């Protein structure tokens, strides 16, 4: 039998792009899909995906569960489980187009849900923790069901294929969001399955990643102590859970989280002249040594209300940032930015470990 | 002759370039990789954004880019010239062994990584602005000059010349000593060094319309491998 992702590791790159309007102005998915075209050769057709923020304003208070099912039976079983835990206000097939370049699609559904208050009281959990645990439970224990997006007023759309085709498949031109991230995949360690395409998400956090981290197992062993389950053997999944743990559970700021995962070298820390800065870096490296991510990565981390771009501290992958009016653009290559905005300004490459944090202005989302 | 690259893939674009006049302008470029790879006897001007590995294995052709260039420009180039009127991405001049790369603006990480030289084949890279971290990493030969102009006082990032064992890096100004490895020797440029810089930057100054004498008035620092403190017993006891 053919091994699927999570059962096999194949030791053997990627393209990322993002756009955000600081004013909260909505854009359709068209431009971000276009932007992946000049970077076509960075992917190999085994995965493409997008995350979009602000796309479900009419259901903004509900968690949007995007799900893959192997078959109808898996969906029916999973729905029984969901009804025990959530009030489902809407469930529907995610609209797709039949195109020759995307084949073998699973059953793709979305549910807008709200946790049952009785369950929350009973388990003494806050909403987000409850949703996160439910996602982990489905993805680990329910064969044939996989949650690939679980945030509020946002959603991931991913598939096996080239990203520009995945965008057409999911009809992304029909969605409007204030922030978009994109990924073209070149799977390095795993065969490439729909669930393994990027973005990887948990709640409203999403990650698109170019690179291959060498600290995967060290990171995984640590993060699994806190209830996260890495089911796919792919490095990006662990980065997503690390970010959730640092931000939501440990309540670190984005910049602090960036200083944990792409911590400066000790020699660089020692040379800091500002004593407070030095202490801060020492503290973060000492408290979270197992969450240092080594090996090449450039990531765009999406969340409700903003984006953060980050390179590994050695900057072993490329990443370029540009802006124009209210918009900020991020991509593996400048060419991708020029497709989205030919007149983009202030194009620059952030240094390794230097987070670029873009947030919407107050009240814009 | 003008060639519009809009919507053309890199393979077709290179075929057209090979069959073209010796002097050609490519416009509408957007991310096509490997442009002009291995070419000689051509003068190519590029408008738009050329993709990665521009001029890889270049063998004598001259390339001028009107704006920025992406990563790995001049990868393993052997001869010729690449002129960038903007900034350049990471790993510029990767393993180059001949020819010249002139950058008006800043260079990304790892510029000149593993440059090498042999007899009269001495590659040269001149960076008008600042260079990113790991400049001249594992450099085995050739000349890198960093001018630090219009870069907000920045000259170079962290860990320059890591693993350097040949060649020279000149800095206009005085980079902080503690960012260099122990195996590299930093000195004020000598009269001979200044003569070398003078020779190397003439053409660069002409192309970008700069006053060479003004540049040469600054103090320069030169980094070379320290032969008294070689890399030994780093991996095995030998």
Order of strands in the sheet with the most strands of chain B?
1-2-3-4-5-6-7-8-9-11-10
Q: Helical segment tally of chain A?
A: 11
Q: Based on Cα principal axes, name the global outline of chain A.
A: globular
Q: What is the level-2 CATH architecture name of chain A?
A: 4-Layer Sandwich
**Mean pLDDT over the residues of chain B:** 95
The side-by-side strand order for the widest beta sheet of chain A comes to: 8-3-10-1-16-15-17
Low-pLDDT ranges of chain A = none
Order of helices and strands of chain A: EEHEEHEEHHEEHEEEEHHHHHEEEEHEE
Class from secondary-structure proportions of chain B: alpha/beta
Say which CATH homologous superfamily of the domain at 87-225 in chain B is assigned: Glutamate synthase, alpha subunit, C-terminal domain
CATH class of the domain at 87-225 in chain B: Mainly Beta
Count every beta strand of chain A, where a strand is a DSSP E run of 2 or more residues.
18
Number of strands of chain B: 11
Quaternary organisation: heterodimer
Question: Strand fraction band of chain B?
Answer: 25-35%
Average pLDDT of chain A works out at 93
Polypeptide structure, described:
- The complex is a heterodimer of chains A (365) and B (238).
- Chain A has 365 residues and is an alpha+beta fold.
- Chain A has a single domain (14-359), classed as Glutamine Phosphoribosylpyrophosphate, subunit 1, domain 1 (4-Layer Sandwich).
- Chain A is built from 11 helices and 18 strands.
- Chain A has helices at residues 30-35, 72-85, 117-123, 127-141, 163-169, 216-223, 235-249, 254-261, 266-270, 275-287, 334-340; strands at 14-21, 27-28, 48-53, 63-69, 86-93, 107-115, 145-149, 154-159, 176-177, 179-185, 200-202, 205-211, 297-303, 306-311, 320-324, 327-331, 345-348, 356-359.
- In chain A, helix 6 (216-223) packs across helix 7 (235-249).
- Chain A is globular.
- The termini of chain A are far apart.
- Chain B has a domain at 87-225: Pectate Lyase C-like (3 Solenoid), CATH 2.160.20.
- Chain B has helices at residues 10-18, 191-208, 212-216, and strands spanning 2-4, 23-30, 43-49, 59-65, 79-84, 100-103, 124-127, 140-146, 166-172, 184-188, 220-225.
- An 11-stranded mixed sheet of chain B has the order 1-2-3-4-5-6-7-8-9-11-10, covered by helices on one side.
- In chain B, strand 1 (2-4), helix 1 (10-18) and strand 2 form a beta-alpha-beta unit.
- Chain B starts with a strand and ends in a 13-residue tail after the last strand.
- The interface between A and B is medium-sized, with 20 and 22 residues.
